[in-house]
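Example A, followed by Example B.
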Amino acid sequence: MKKLLAIFLTAALSVTMFAGCSSDSGNGDSSTAEGGSSAGQTEEVSGNILLNGSTSMENVVNALNEVWNQNNPNAQAEGQYTGSGDGIKAVADGTADIGDSSRALSDDEKAQGLVENVIALDGIAVVTDPNNTVSNLTKDQLVQIYTGQITNWSEVGGADQQIVVIGRESNSGTRGAFEELLEIEDQCQYAQEINSTGGILSTVQSTPGAIGYSSLADLTDTVKALSLDGVEPTVDNVKAGTYALQRPFVMATKGTIDEQEAQVKAYLEFVLSAEGQAIVADCGLITVE
């Protein structure tokens, strides 16, 4: 009887895992805990798990939570998406168990006892409106566009059209990573600041001459993704290290994983297990196995 039950649970999980991130972009665990069964099921733990933070991580967190919650009815995981900075702050002040951050933690944040648990890698795609004739920028051109030194697409081989610079709000992990990778922190000249990944994509799509940036995993064909120094923003190029704009997806905790409450520890072990990383890969991200 136990053997039949295990087969049923494994089959159910497999169906769920590969459906997890097949929905549209913009929405979105886990090794076996001690004494639990495989595939994210940990009957012994109880107590809910609150995650807060990055909107870029919404797809993958939702997919991980869906599988975890099906298998752990007494330890339900809930995701909130208020931005990386808010998620990190929530963990630091004890109002969330896990802070989802789409950038690396700063030295100041680590000094508060926060630990950077990298669960995936992601690229940051530079996107324009679909009618833009430009298909490639150099890193230097991208820097000059975002700092206001280049203001017309004709200066980079495109049409005579004003560039509309779109970016995320100041609390965004995507913005923080983008500006840090280009070394243009606090120098950007934004025409609009948008508070979600989906908002960036819809604004760029509908604004002639617009340029913006988004998680590679959230890209849709509603916008045009630009190559950077001749390298396309693809998972393979991020893996190879040839695409310059890449960053970690972090689940930050106050203290190490082993220091967390049992249900939080089990959840993070699930995320980093083969089962959890298969869900990460299904969401278009690069695994850390």
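Example B, a separate protein, is given below in the same form.
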Amino acid sequence: MSKQLTMSDIARMAGVSTATVSRVLSNHPMVREETRDRILSLVKEHRYEPSYVARNLSTRRTHTIGVVVDDISNPFFMELAKGVELVLQKNGYTMLLTSSGWDPAKEADLIRTLLRNRVDGVLLTPVHPESESTEVMRRNGVPFVVMNCHSDNESVSYVSTDNVEGGRLAAELMLRTNLTRFLCLSGVPHQSTSERAEGFIHEIRSHGRGNDLAVYDEVRTFDDGYNIVPSLIARNRLDAVSTGIFTSNDFVAMGILEGLIAHRIPVPSQVSVIGYDDIAFAERYRIPLTTVIQAKHSMGQLAADELMELIQDRNHNPARLLLKPRLIVRDSCTAAQSHEPRSAVP
């Protein structure tokens, strides 16, 4: 194993003082651009990591927590953050909230920035459960908890949803109806969305209906959902064949609904739609959305509680929690038009 570089090593290679390296790493403005570029190039080339924790040992706690989510515009992540904030405020902590935009490199940069700003811990919804970001925090001994993902590393605390079960619940509901065709629309390449699709697809196939199933990837947003409808009509005869559509998030499901309405395809008598997340306005959409419920607020609270434990006790055994999803039946699914009442399915 190669020797871990120090700040002095970087200063020597750059031909500057350690104070200059320190100013660059803390984004101090009083450094020449040429010098800044040379130091940052060396930092990147040699994968130098400042000893953030050692730097913090000489200071008191900042009582700030970094929170990095994937998409700050998605209501799911905002409701998650509300649960986090409730716990942090109760414990006298301030939340620094930011978004990676599903970009692993940006995520890692944000984590390094938070560590430079001496946060006491981090809550992260990672693009990948074994990302560079989690490695940086492990290497520096920074307390952190992963949300909306589960890790195979037994030293990592996480709080997520059993997404395979969530996908299975959606398929189970559709299989109880007289649907002829099943479509699965998966979104951002991510552990949570792939597991939702996995649960749905397995349940459909286990009932001998695999030949009636089509899967579409990279359908991520409301616009993606709306724009794919003409293709779904052409390929799957949505205007003539009774079909169930399962999507990996509520935004896509709502876009699908708008596209179906625009093409005058009846919902749910001709096409049933099921989303995932139960974001705040899913119930109040113009066709109330059948969806898989994630305990978003509780996920944030449990993750923040776990982080408080880790900060107080570095020997605390990691919590590894998978929350149980539920299915809420509303007007976008044919089951809501049958003799079954609108309800949450356990």
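On Example B: Confidence is low (pLDDT under 50) at residues 338-346.
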